[in-house]
Amino acid sequence: MTIHSARWWVAWNPNATTPSANGVRLVTADSGPTNIVAFIGATLTRASTTSPVVDAVDITSAMQDLLDARVRKTIGHQIVGNGTSGPKI
Question: CB neighbours (10 Å) of residue 83?
């Protein structure tokens, strides 16, 4: 099977009240969840932003690799805070 196009769209509020960035990333995990790893190797970050934003990343290659590997994974979001506030998805 070939995946022709896959995008990760996320509407989120960075809720970053300081210049230190808050972020969100796409991760994969085994059931449990255990072995949580970045799925596409990119974290979307924003600093000093408290308004909702929409970001998108092409994940076609990463999805194809996962399919070709024939392994079961759970795909989810992971958030990164700046120590004073955290993002909202």
Answer: 8
